[in-house]
Each structure stands twice: as structure tokens, then as C-alpha cells.
Amino acid sequence: MSLSPGDSLTSHNFGLQIDGVMVEYLAEVSGLSMEQDVITYQQNTANGQNKVVNLPGVKKNGTCTVVRGMTQSAAFTEWINQSIAGQMSSARKNASIIMMDFQNTP
Predict the structure, then answer these.
(1) Positions of E strands within the chain
(2) What's residue 11's pLDDT?
(3) Taking a C-beta distance cutoff of 8 angstroms, is the pair 40, 28 a contact?
């Protein structure tokens, strides 16, 4: 789809779903990362040659920074406050960050 004269490009919009329910539109998402250690060890093959082997190690959690949009959902605020207060039984939920296109479809 091409732009018509006078149309402008829009920036990406992000949505936050908690347990499958869209609760917040986000203005910015940054810092999505994941790290994993590498375990390197040496072993001898059956014919006596030295062989270096790499295996996947421990996964490390990353940090995700979100900037809230104009909606300022009460459900999102409540979820954050529950985790800060240590109410982990009710705060543990599945969350997804979804990138939307210019028509707000995932």
C-alpha cells in the first residue's frame, strides 16, 4: 500500500496484554534483551584428538522498559502495585507486548 499525497508516516504503537486482555497502549518499548551463558569444555574423541565443545548455559532475564501512552490503564497500575507490594499470588500473570501497525492491528 502506497501513501497518497498529503499522507504522513506514523510511528509504531505498542499494546500490552495481560492474560490475553489488552489493558494499555504503550508509547515506547526499549531494552528487550535476553542473555545466555556459553559453557565451553574440551573432550577427547575416540581416536584421541582434542575437541572443543560449546553448550548452551544458564539463561539470564533481561530488562524491558516501557513508556505508557495516553490511556493510563487502572488495570496496569494495579498489576504493578501488586508486584511492588509483594502480592505475587495475584500479580503473577502472562503479559505480552504487541507491536501494532498504522491500523492498530497486531
Answers:
(1) 13-18, 21-30, 35-44, 50-60, 65-68, 95-100
(2) 56
(3) no
Contacts of 3 (CB under 8 A, 6+ apart): 9
Reply yes or no on whether the pLDDT at 10 is more than 90.
no
**Do residues 91 and 82 touch, judged by C-beta distance below 8 A?**
yes
Taking the CB of residue 3, how many other CB atoms lie within 10 A of it? 8
What is the rounded distance in angstroms from the CA atom of residue 17 to the CA atom of residue 22? 4
Cβ neighbours of residue 22 closer than 8 Å, sequence gap 6 or more: 15, 16, 98
Average pLDDT of the chain, as a whole number: 82
Residue 7's Cα: distance from chain center in Å? Answer: 31
Whether 54 has a pLDDT exceeding 90, the answer reads: yes
Does the predicted TM-score (pTM) go above 0.85?
no
What's the rounded Cα separation, in Å, for the pair 86 and 24?
22
Q: Which three cell numbers stand for residue 21?
A: 486482555
Cell of 10: 506514523
